[in-house]
Each structure stands twice: as C-alpha cells, then as structure tokens.
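Pair request: fold both.
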Amino acid sequence: MTLQEALKKGKFVITAEIAPPKGTDVADVIEIGKVLRHLVNAINVTDQQSSTMRLGSMAVCVLLQKLGADPIYQLTCRDRNRIALQSDLLSAHVLGLRNVLALTGDLPELGDHYQAKQVYDIDSVHLLQAIAKLNGGFDMAGSELKGRTDLFPGAVANPGADTEAAYELQLIKFEKKVNAGAKFFQTQALFDVGTLDRFMKRVSRFNVPVFAGIVPLKSAGMARFMNKNIPGIHVPEDLIQHMARADDKEITGIRIAGNLIRQFKGYCQGVHIMAIGWEKKVPAILNAAGL
C-alpha cells in the first residue's frame, strides 16, 4: 500500500530512509530497496544529507520505483535556486515520482565540501508554495505551464527543540508549512513519548498526519553524541544506561526502537525509521514493534 493510499484509508503509516551511495555503485541501494519495498509504505531518499556529496535523490527514487517501492523524493534548497528547484520538480513528475519532502538543507560547512557556496534562494516554506503553484499549473513567476504537476508534498518538524523559544518557533514553522501545502510531516528522532504527546497536542488541530522519527541506538556512545551534537535530540539517561549495560547492543537497540514505535502508535499517524546504516535491520525493528 502506497503512502497516499495508506493515509486515505487511515492506516498507521511506516516510512523508512535510504541514503544514496557516494558513487555510482547502486547494488546496496537496490538490495535494501528489495528488503523494504513490501514492509513500508514509502522510502525516503535523502538529498546530499549532512551536506555530503552523493548520488542524486531523484535517480535513486526512480530505481526504487522500478522495484515496486513508493519513494519520497527529498529536495533541499541549499544547492539550487528557484529555477533549478522548479525544474527538478517538473522532472520528478515526468519520471513518475509523486511524493516530495521539502527541506531547507544543512549548511555546507558541515559536509565534505565545506568550500561549497550555499544557495538558499528560497527555504522549505517557499518550496512548498512552489509545489502548490506547479500543481496548480503555474511557476513561481506566474507563467502558465504546459502540463501541471501532481506532487504530494511533505515537510519536517522538530518536536524536541531545546528551548521554549525554539519550540515555539517550530510550531510557527509547522503552521506556515501547513498553510503552504504540506500534506504530511516527518519528525526529528524522538526517544520519549512525553515529547511527542506535548507536540501532538499543539499541532493536532491542523489535521495533518505526523510520522514520529525513529533512530535505532547502536551504543551508549552514539546516544551521548546525538545529545551533544544534534539540536532537538534528547536520549533519556535511562536509555543510555540500558545501552551501556547491554551485552548485545544490536538486539537491545532494535528492541528499544520497537518499543518506542509501540508507545508512539497511539499519539501520531505513523513513524519514520532512520536506520543510519541499519536499513537491513528494519524488518527486525518492525517485528519488535509488532508490525
């Protein structure tokens, strides 16, 4: 069942994520796609995540589509101006892609080409507005298209913002993205149901599906690194200690991820699994979650 079909039927949605290779060898991507295609409703393909140069999201989306998967084409504003962004959206539609996740994008200095010039001609809100215009048959300049797009746009949210000011800003951005046409949201990784519950109480009035982010822990060190270096992520100390004491880190990380999915299921409309190198373990995570 595709993403749009699952949402129309009110099903609990499961999405996962694939990072394109840094090169042209797509064997691993295809292998992962074959594992995930019948287990999840859609597969995100990241767009130069962490500002690291990789194979393009659009190309991998097309490969996944040929396997029978429903891809989500991630598109960031960091590397393209509005002309290139709109052109890529037209290209995605012509290639049969429909789901698009609009992102502003990480700063170039975070990646492997720190000398690269950032573009940021528009941000993710404006990109969502551009998608709405293209779907309506016009470009951002108001010129009529010869054939409109039929894209299904989504956006991201961070329920775990570190300060009250940052949290309120996230809520403001959420509303702007809804007004700009976002049809679904995928969140930053969450590790406690209280953070999700608090966020959902504030955004449920918009009646837009939210998929809670799930990142399986691989070690206590990974958890501490995320707490220290990734804004908006907070792994509770009890989970860190649980990982530190575990004899089998892999099984423990899978069980924690599965348990979080079980807890989150009553609060949101789906989950988004960002396995970060553990994509082939997504079946085990879903099994641990009873899905």
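--- second member of the pair ---
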Amino acid sequence: MPAGHVAGLIAWLRPFLLCEHTVYVDHWDGELAVEMFRRHAISRTSGAPLQINYLLDHLEPELMGRIKHITTGATSIAPNMMQRCEKLGAPASRIFGTTEHPTVAGSLPADPLNKRIHTDGRIMAGGSVRIVDDDNHDVASGERGEIWTMGPQLFLGYLDAGLNAGAFTPDGWFRTGDIGILDTDGFLSVVDRKKDIIIRGGENISSKEVEDLLATHPAVAEAAAVAWPDSRLGERVGVFVRTRPGAQLDLPAVIAHFQASGVARHKTPEYLVMVEDFPRTSVGKILKPELRKRVAQLQASKTPQ
C-alpha cells in the first residue's frame, strides 16, 4: 500500500507497534515483491486483491505457507481468493475502513474461517457502527442498510466544510455511503456502495454479489460489475473481466455459469467487456467511475457486445 494512502500509513506504524522488522518498497512491483518474500522470509503482509492474487500466482507454496497473516481490503474481496490463501496455510482476513475512518472492522486468524471469508470482521475496539435504512432508522441484525460509524479514529471533517453537512449526522455519526449487514455475532459485511447498486426493472442487484459469483469461474482473474443504462429496464448488469493467462471467456459462458449457480435470473450479466487490466487507484482498487465512462463510450459508438 502506498505510504500516502491511509492503509500505507497504518503499515508504516507496524514496526513501532509490534517491534517487527518490516520490508518496504517504493511502489508495487510484483516481481520485486516475490523477490523480497524469498529474501526475507516475510511472515505478514497486506494488500488489495490485485497484490494478494499476484502472490498466490507467483510465490512458491512453501513460502506462502510461512505467512502467518494476510490482511486485505480496499475493494470487494472474492471468497475464492481467501480460500486459496487458507489452502496454502496463509490465513487471510478482511478489513474495512475508509480514509475518513481507517479502522472500522477487521478479523484475525483466530476468528472462524467462515467469518473471515464472508465478512469484514468485528467492529474494532473503541468504535461503533449503526446500520440504517433510507429513513435513517436502525435496521435489525442481518438486514441491509447504510453503514454509519463513530470512534476515536474518525476524522474531524473535510477541509471543504461544505461537504460536512452531507457526511455527518447532527449527532456526529459519519455516513460512509457503504451498504452493509451486521450479523448477530457482531461481524460486519460490506455488501455494496449505494452508487454501485444496479437497479434492473426495479430490482436492486448487488454488484459485489455479481463479482463474487463471476470470480468463481475458472477463466476469471478479476471482474467488476457496473450498471449498463437501458431505456426499457433502467439498468442492466454489465461486467468487465480480466481473464487468467491463456483462458478464454465469452458472454454465453458467463450466462451458463450464472444459470448453473442457481442465482436469480435478473442478476445474470447481459453485457461483457474483456480488458487486459483495469483502471486503478494507487492501492489497486478498480476505478468504477472510469468503467462507467467506458460504458457510455460503448453505448455512444453502439459497439456490439
């Protein structure tokens, strides 16, 4: 994670908090990262799925097996990536935070595997979370709603004070804009961004659910689901896909994969765009606004999919 990103800042604190030797590199370079693992027998690491998947694909199994803990976040996490880590003896856990509130939830290797794979962890010490509906009412455990947070690591406010009214409630809760579920055991699952929900014919579709299911296809290395504007239904499901080396994929194969899974038919992608890589932030998070621009360009040019 870049040092200028909040996750990178947290990583810079590790030597002072844990008294452990720490290896830093100037920027993400997959080959260099693998070399550092080999040279220094690194036992803990963190990164977005882009980095973790690279290690899984290129690092020797015995070196992966030395890793005591992998933390990952910054974007949607496919369960199969977490399972790959576990099979190699490198326990992974998901974490959730924002630049405004870096440490909201997280899990540890001692937590149940099912919780580590399918949730973003417990609420961290000192913090509080509410899950609220569109009317700002708290929802019951297991129900979806917007995640509101409060805690000692929450920022004081934006430099542009005009943004604060929309970001904070009058009593100080921060509106993350993320959609989540808090289960009865106190584990938080971030299931979508409000703006990432695809509304097809009035039905709300979680882009993360589409991405997670698509990620289980053996040809898929990485996927991102976005709304594809449609004059009749409002929106349809579109997906951008990067395949594994040498793999092939087309829309009929994607449709067959979703049909075989038994998922509701309206969640099946209707548009497929193949990419060699995705536009990304400095931490490897896929820039969905850029993908939406690409959709608009494809629609304007009437490029068939």
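Observation on the second member. The radius of gyration is 20 Å.
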